[in-house]
Design a protein that fits this description.
heterodimer, A: alpha/beta, Rossmann fold, 2 domains, six-stranded mixed beta sheet, four-stranded antiparallel beta sheet, 10 helices, 10 strands, B: alpha/beta, eight-stranded mixed beta sheet, 31% helix
Chain lengths: 317, 327
């Protein structure tokens, strides 16, 4: 049985410019211990999916569909029951480590608060757990740094603390929203290695949200590609990279500059990201797609065999 | 061999830091942002500068452009040194050298139409043009960067990030400078848009024979556009080499670690990134020896006391003591 099951998730925002269709008809499952990547560019709706799972969407959002965690529908759960699940069962790691830590609280208090709240631990017990988890994410000299404030740590160390906070109750699912985007590559390598090791040790399921195909390739079992709030393609990670079955995935892979290849022209995807204020009636990628045929602009492709494209794979360029 | 169009020698930039001062009247401490960087740039070449955040790469090119201060160092343009305190020198510099910035929206005046924005350099640098000729040039330039004429009376907020960066490029190039400084020009853009802008820059560079300095933290992007790559760490130069050689065979331990950490978009490649341990030195209190010593996996005792000079190793410049001994 899957741990998390998202069915026909739809997220719309009421804005001054009209209804914005941020996420349309997205479905996926995550099994215990599975690592799934949600890949997409800005505006593809990937972060909103994580926020919807946690019940943290902005007030002007309208949500439809089902999000089942361990059999319970999270979208209809009252706040009190949702609070009991947050951190204890599902934890969220944000992109910016500074703004997800409270600058007025010591690290020990911020970490300890989570176990006190969710497990009713005592102060002493909470401190012990905070120390354990700080050591687990390899913060040097952890015992002496428990009393430090977030600003006393570097960006990479802060992201370790945020990961420690997500892990302290041993959740079954971690949602990591661009966890390394704000970090330098050498620090990114450290953090991804740490996440990988922890995931292996604890068997936690991870939903990794990112725009960086390089990070996905090294970490995730399965990959789902989003564009304009819609799933374009979903497959095991090696298949996505070896035999991408959707024109958008192909275009994205070709557009990434790699250090290994020399002085070649990158194949850019022409055009601009879609305007999502109109209700989707056709493939959102059609206006930028090199393989588009007239029918692409007229009908929504069904999601079949891991891809949402009306043209057969063999006919794609 | 022709003469370099731009030559930078021993640039040093420090900033005063008031925080942590003992008494209000004690002199401020200095943060060492750039510690003696120099390079020669041949006309028509593309120099990429890479390094992690805080390594001083942006500070360096801002100082070269005269947009930021520097403590010492000389910048020579076409064989003539630039005196940044002299207005005529700055005018000469800006005529020849323009810049594009990281945040495409923030670098365009929100209250000017893009036609006004792109025409402005012509008003200063080509005063002989009348308004019809100016308009004609603006249309031509905007068309070249892929912005349609019918959109030119719009304001920056009506354009997407990628389009704003195109407008920034049009503004920088309309008065035909020879040198273009690019400060992280694509890091705020999505992958598919990023590729469009890189391709545009490469085309324009070839067409106009531009000399480019391209600063970025993304090695893949820099590799794609550069002829030579300069690697910076803590404000110092670690290595400089032709792009292909640097990527294929990095000589400095920092370059090696940096390259091994770049994620490869291929799941079959089992990457073994070199995980750097140790902390960065404080830029307020730099170590006596090598700047990279605290995180270097190949450190020897001498690294703590001797700051290695940038030395020529078969056509590439490396600042490492180990390199000295092995060669």
């Amino acid at each position: 049985m899957s741990l998390l099951s998202v069915e026909n998730l739809q997220i719309r925002f009421r804005t001054g410019d009209g209804l914005v269709h941020a996420v349309n008809d997205v479905s996926f499952d995550i099994a215990e211990g599975q690592k799934l990547a949600l890949v997409g560019e800005s505006g593809s709706g990937k972060s909103q999916i994580a926020l919807a799972i946690m019940g943290l969407l902005a007030k002007n959002a309208e949500v439809a569909g089902k999000v089942r965690f361990d059999g319970r529908d999270l979208l209809s759960l009252p706040a009190s029951q949702l609070n009991a699940l947050r951190a204890a069962q599902i934890a969220l790691i944000f992109q910016d480590p500074m703004s997800s830590l409270n600058p007025y609280m010591t690290i020990e208090r911020q970490l300890g608060e989570v176990v006190e709240l969710h497990e009713g631990a005592s102060r002493a017990e909470a401190r012990k757990r905070a120390l354990e988890v700080m050591e687990a994410v390899r913060i040097p000299d952890a015992r002496n740094r428990l009393r430090a404030y977030p600003h006393e740590f570097s960006g990479g160390m802060r992201q370790r603390i945020v990961i420690a906070m997500a892990l302290i109750c041993r959740p079954r699912l971690i949602l990591a929203d661009e966890p390394t985007t704000a970090l330098d590559v050498t620090v990114q390598a450290q953090i991804m290695a740490l996440l990988d090791e922890i995931q292996r040790d604890l068997g936690t399921a991870v939903l990794l949200i990112t725009h960086d195909l390089g990070v996905v390739a090294g970490f995730c079992d399965d990959t789902m590609v989003l564009y304009g709030g819609r799933v374009m393609e979903a497959a095991p990670t090696p298949a996505i990279f070896d035999a991408p079955g959707h024109p958008y995935t192909r275009g994205l892979l070709r557009a990434v500059p790699r250090i290994t290849d020399g002085d070649v022209t990158l194949s850019a995807i022409p055009g601009s990201p879609p305007n999502q204020t109109a209700a989707p009636r056709a493939c959102p990628f059609a206006p930028r797609c090199v393989d588009a045929i007239p029918a692409c602009h007229e009908m929504l492709p069904d999601f079949r065999e891991g891809r949402a494209c009306i043209r057969p794979v063999e006919e794609l360029t | 061999m022709s003469d370099p169009i731009l030559s930078v020698k021993d640039m040093r930039v420090t900033f005063p830091v008031r925080r942590g001062q003992r008494f209000p009247w004690s002199p401020p401490r200095r943060l060492n942002a750039v510690n003696g960087v120099g390079f020669d740039l041949m006309p028509g070449r593309v120099l990429g500068i890479v390094g992690e955040s805080g390594c001083g790469k942006s500070t360096l090119i801002r100082a070269v452009a005269g947009l930021g201060p520097h403590d010492s160092g000389t910048v020579t343009l076409d064989g003539q040194p630039i005196d940044y305190a002299r207005r005529t020198d700055l005018q000469r510099l800006r005529r020849r050298m323009q810049m594009i910035f990281q945040d495409p929206m923030a670098s365009l005046n929100p209250r000017m139409t893009i036609r006004e924005i792109v025409a402005e350099p012509l008003v200063y640098f080509c005063p002989e043009l009348n308004s019809r000729q100016r308009r004609h040039k603006v249309i031509e330039m905007l068309d070249r960067v892929g912005i349609a004429e019918r959109n030119m009376n719009r304001f920056p907020h009506e354009f997407s990030g990628g389009q704003c960066q195109r407008i920034g490029i049009a503004r920088a190039l309309i008065a035909r400078p020879q040198i273009l400084l690019c400060d992280e020009p694509v890091s705020a853009l999505d992958v598919s848009i990023q590729a469009q802008v890189i391709n545009l820059l490469k085309e324009l560079q070839a067409e106009m024979g531009l000399t480019l300095i391209f600063v970025a933290h993304d090695l893949g992007v820099v590799r794609h556009i550069s002829d030579d790559i300069l690697v910076m760490y803590m404000g110092g130069m670690m290595e400089m080499a032709p792009a292909g050689e640097l990527v294929a065979n990095p000589r400095h331990p920092y370059t090696q670690a940096l390259l091994s950490a770049v994620p490869v978009p291929d799941p079959r490649v089992k990457q073994q990134p070199q995980i750097l341990t140790g902390d960065l030195p404080s830029p307020m209190d730099l170590p006596q020896g090598c700047l990279f010593q605290s995180r270097c996996p190949k450190r020897i005792d001498a690294c703590a006391t001797v700051r290695p000079d940038l030395t020529d190793r078969q056509g590439r410049l490396v600042a490492c003591l180990l390199e000295d001994e092995t060669v």
